[in-house]
Design brief:
By secondary structure, this protein is of the alpha+beta class. The chain has one domain. It has helices at 49-59, 63-70, 106-110, 133-144, and strands at 27-31, 46-47, 71-73, 80-82, 93-94, 97-98, 127-131. The protein has a three-stranded antiparallel sheet with strand order 2-4-3. It is globular, with a radius of gyration of 16 Å. The structure holds iron/sulfur cluster (SF4).
């Protein structure tokens, strides 16, 4: 997934969800349904240098070729972001699916459990599952590939 509601360059940017609640209610894990709606929203997907390298290998391209064909300057001109197609969707969206799923950027992996924005549920088809704090940490770690989940 890519495009962004909130500011994923900030940890938890745009409003964290699935955070343990202090009133005793269960935490929530959002189970992605791979609807790809988030790959079509306006915004940008920032890339780290390591992500560029991984994506280039995955595509079988030299890094310089990958950068040329699939990236652009980020909006603040402080790094690279994935290009968009003329219709606004992510350049890596292919046939309704992410063409780089195994190596997709962390920003994409973190949505919607570690960042999102108000009202995302009206577009995102992820199913909210009430879970224990411990289970939420386990599921979010699996979904995002991150080792430490608060
Ligand atoms: S369910 Fe949500 S996070 Fe998953 S692909 Fe759809 S919009 Fe993106």
């Amino acid at each position: 997934m890519r495009n962004v509601i909130g500011d994923p360059s900030q940890p938890g940017g745009g409003g964290a969800v699935g955070v343990p609640l202090s009133d005793g209610r269960p935490s929530v894990f959002y189970e992605c349904q791979r609807c790809a709606a988030c790959c079509r929203w306006p915004g940008q997907v920032r890339l780290t240098g390591a992500e560029v390298a991984r994506l280039a290998v995955f595509k079988g391209l030299a890094e310089s070729d990958f950068i040329q064909r699939f990236t652009r300057l980020a909006g603040d001109r402080r790094g690279l972001a994935l290009q968009e197609k003329p219709n606004g969707e992510c350049v890596l969206l292919d046939g309704g699916q992410c063409a780089a799923q195994p190596v997709k950027p962390q920003q994409c992996r973190d949505f919607p459990n570690l960042w999102n924005d108000a009202g995302f549920e009206t577009i995102c088809r992820a199913i909210p599952r009430p879970v224990s704090d411990e289970e939420r940490r386990r599921l979010v770690a699996l979904a995002t590939g991150r080792e430490k989940i608060l």
